[in-house]
Amino acid sequence: MxxxxxxxMPSILERWARSARVDVRQASRMKRLLAVTGLLLWMPLLALxxxxxxxxxxxxxxxxxxxxxxxxxxxxxxxxxxxxxxxFGEHKISGKGGNAAHVGVSVYQSSDLLHWNARGIxxxxxxxxxxxxxxxxxxxxxxxxxxxxxxxxxxxxxxxRAGHGYKDARVGVAVADAPAGPYRYLxxxxxNGQQSRDMTLFQDDGGIAYLFYSSERNATMHVxxxxxxxxxxxxxxxxxxxxxxxxxxxxxxxxxxxxxxxxECTGWKPNTAHGAAATSPMGPWTEFGNPAxxxxxxxxxxxxxxxxxxxxxxxxxxxxxxxxxxPENAIDGRYVxxxxxxxxxxxxxxxxxxWSLDEAQKTHVPSR
Length: 368
Known about the structure:
Elements: H1 9-51, E1 73-79, E2 85-90, E3 104-110, E4 117-124, E5 138-146, E6 153-160, E7 170-176, E8 184-189, E9 199-203, E10 209-215, E11 220-226, E12 233-240, E13 246-254, E14 257-264, E15 273-278, E16 286-289, E17 292-293, E18 304-310, E19 317-324, E20 334-343, E21 346-350, H2 357-361
Parallel strand pairs: 17-21
Antiparallel strand pairs: 1-2, 2-3, 3-4, 5-6, 6-7, 7-8, 9-10, 10-11, 11-12, 13-14, 14-15, 15-16, 18-19, 19-20, 20-21
């Protein structure tokens, strides 16, 4: 091997370093060129993807922006003053025991109802075994309203304490300063001393709010007004659909008319939906039969009602939001969202294997 004289070493090393720096700069420029070229090649495809409306596929796995499957069952939807939507739901775990609350109420945020950001657990189960919402309690159908007068966000849900089965039949109430929480649990009770299982909230014009709940061992639906701060109920209530055995209430309004959608009581198994309309939330309500139409309508497309949301920017159009329960593996319950259309004195829900909000906008809504 040829030997290098020590006096030549500094100059050789300097030349080598200069050459290495040039190679690094050239490689860096080449990487930038390739990146720009790749972006230019992909831009037409990205533009096509942006122009294509995102679709809703009822019953399919629905992933959030973080790539995880959305875990928010028995949905409650809130459109906050900031214009964004918040999806609250029961956080399930795998297995038969997954229907009990082992984590809490989850919350997701979206600006378009299609792409959802996970915001974590809005209301966690308590570490205190004596708490109403201790691990193993039943926390179902969380619904949240914003109280403009107090500035608070108030969550209500069906509550059964851990180890009590479905014997308690209570509502639970929690409050927060921001839509995604964290929510602070306040208390549980039976509204007006009456049993309350499946329930929902409805906020009317002027901020008046109502609680609808399945009572009298699920035989009869009740409705009562919330107090002005949304933290309790007024003393008067009305009995609706007496001895009809209905649960899973969802309430919405259009043009001064109120609409009810609920299901029969068959446990976790799907059944026939019931529709009704009224000129006041307190009733009287007039039933008009099953609003679901077409194949599998008798089983409400293998789903159960959770919420009905006005379609954004489309007055008079709505979205039916239901759950396809899986009691053998609770975490694998699926969401069934479908366009809901007013028709005559009632409304209808038709099956769509997939649909987009843009397509729903083209659907004709009969004039009243």
